[in-house]
Amino acid sequence: MKTEHLLTVSDEHSGLRLDKWLSIFDIVASRSRAAELIDRGLVTLNGKALKASYKVQSDDIIRVELPAAQPSKLIPLDAPLDILFEDEDVVVVNKPAGLVVHPAAGHAQDTLVNLLLHHVDSLSMGFNEQRPGIVHRLDRDTSGVLVVAKNDAAHRNLAAQFKDKTTHRVYHALVHGVPKAHLGTLTTRLARHPQNRKRFASTGSDAGKLAITHYQVLQSVPAKISLLQCRLETGRTHQIRVHLSEAGHALVGDVIYGSKSRKPADLELGRLGLHAAELGFSHPRTHKPLLFKQAWPEQFATFAHKKGIHDVST
Q1: Fold designation for 3-66
Q2: What is the topology classification, in CATH, of domain 83-156?
Q3: Residue pLDDT, tens place only, 100-145
Q4: What is the pLDDT of residue 111?
Q5: How confident is the model over 5-28, as a mean pLDDT?
Q6: Which of 71, 77, 78 is nearest to 132 (CA)?
Q7: Same topology between domain 3-66 and domain 169-281+287-306
Q8: pLDDT category, 1, cuts 50, 70, 90?
Q9: Range with the lowest mean pLDDT among 80-89, 199-208, 276-285?
Q10: Annotated catalytic residue 206
Q11: Catalytic one among 60, 139, 141, 266?
Q12: What is the spatial distance between Cα 307 and Cα 227, in angstroms, rounded to a whole number?
């Protein structure tokens, strides 16, 4: 059954784009969800469907219809899944490299979502039956800690935490070379690459989304490989990969943002040199702070140890 909500625009929010204003509310929680509702004609003012670019005005009363969740057509997949924590609201998993998070072209039934549907009793449906429970993502070839929502209330709460930048996310990155500055912040605006839609790139215009990565060199092998700790302030698609590549230190094993002529280390590692080592957030029901740390997977650790770099995950 669909639900309807009447939302009133306050003076402080007057002039905001409709999609941005809607994302403030927990019932929507993200700009992408706002855009989907608007595109479907479910956001109206005085009975008239609005566009995402509409500038809301003080005392506007916006009607928002939330559609009923549709039954999922996804097929559960019976295969091992490394669950780090689970309760009635969330499940935290250690995703292996090579596993796609949710169904997409070429991966209809062999994703993390399919595994979750077999291992857990329920997942939040949100607005997208193809991505139940998915609050944030890791690239296919990135390993590490990821949290999934088991109900819509938990999904909204976690989405708000990611949006408000109150989560704690630390990645370990193996990169080519040694950055001159061993501590720094990379700040750009990211948008899809104009010539290659599979890539993202920094742009000088306001069209891109703000991306902020804080990094620190933890260990290095002079002129060869470095281990970086990257802390995300924002979570844009391919953010770490783009930032480090543009800084001249592409991730080892990165076939998209690395050198066109692959280096021996890329072939030796055989995967992307990126691991989500730490994830912290407040529990959506109890508000208790939770922190999960995950040591490097074997393939990552074996390569690093051969290069003289040691695990600092634990």
Answers
A1: 3.10.290
A2: Pseudouridine synthase (3.30.2350)
A3: 888 765 666 788 988 988 888 777 755 555 567 888 989 999 999 9
A4: 87
A5: 90
A6: 71
A7: no
A8: low
A9: 199-208
A10: no
A11: 139
A12: 10
Residue bearing the bigger pLDDT, 17 or 1: 17
- Contact of 14 with 8, CB cutoff 8 Å: no
pLDDT digits (tens, 9 = 90+) for 41-95: 999 999 999 999 999 999 999 999 987 765 557 788 889 999 999 999 999 999 9
Measured in degrees and rounded to the nearest 5, phi and psi for residue 115 equal -65, -45
